[in-house]
Amino acid sequence: MKTRMIAGAVLLALAPALAGADELASLAPGTRVRVTADRAGSPRLIGTIVAVDEELLTLMNDSNQKVTLPRNLVKQAEMSWGRRGHGWQGLLAGAALGTAMGFAEGDTCDRYACYTRHQNALYGGIGLAVIGALIGRKVKTDRWAGIELRVRPTGASMSVRF
User: Fold this and answer.
1) Enclosing domain of residue 114
2) Are residue 71 and residue 134 in the same domain, yes or no?
3) CB 34, CB 44: distance < 8 Å
4) pLDDT band at 40 (very low <50, low <70, confident <90, very high)
5) How far apart are CA 82 and CA 144, in angstroms?
6) Do 111 and 145 sit in the same domain of this protein?
7) pLDDT exceeds 80 at position 6
8) Beta-carbon-side half-sphere exposure of residue 138 (alpha carbons within 13 Å)
9) Which has fewest Cβ within 10 Å: 30, 54, 58, 153?
């Protein structure tokens, strides 16, 4: 009984690969990709797919120019999985910088109050942490996942690997 259950689980796990359905998404026009190619000048291109066939990959780059590459020159391709902000990283960087600046300032007094080195570090860390978090949320970068370009008789497809 256990052997049948294990064999069934293995077959279920292998079924998509055996059926050729291991692609998680197709190379549809409008997909944002980053392509590394074997060509002089600009080896890495970022753009949106316009068309794909067995021989050519056509992208619209960020400058709204069409770029056509022979598929055999494509060494690596990655698909964008969206954009993300960096609020936590900005918060940590701001807190570290503010704390360091507060410690470096030392004990200070103004007309109304005196602050110790530790208070300056605390207030500086909190203040710059908030500023860093706000800046970090505004700074956005693409998240990329590697894809493998393949040509099949039914058309172009891709698979995602992490």
Assistant:
1) 87-138
2) no
3) yes
4) low
5) 8
6) no
7) no
8) 5
9) 153
What residue type is 15 in one-letter code? A
Of 2, 52, 50, residue with least CA distance to 30:
50
113 and 60 assigned to the same domain: no
Number of domains observed in the structure of the chain: 2
CA dihedral 18, 21, 23, 24 (to 10 degrees): -120
Residues in CB range of 137: below 8 A, 6 or more apart:
85, 86, 87, 90
> What average pLDDT does the chain have?
77
Comparing C-alpha atoms, which of 160, 161, 162, 158 is closest to residue 26? 158
- For the stretch 145-148, contacts whose Cβ atoms lie closer than 8 Å and that sit 24 or more positions apart, written own/partner, are 145/78, 145/79, 145/81, 146/76, 146/77, 146/78, 147/33, 147/77, 147/78, 147/79, 148/77
- How far apart CA 159 and CA 16 sit, in angstroms, is 12
> Based on the domain organization, do 149 and 72 belong to the same domain?
yes
pLDDT in tens, 90-133: 999 999 999 999 999 888 888 888 999 999 999 999 999 999 99
Are residue 146 and residue 70 in the same domain, yes or no? Answer: yes
Same domain? For 28 and 69 the reply is: yes
| Residue 62 and residue 6 share a domain | yes
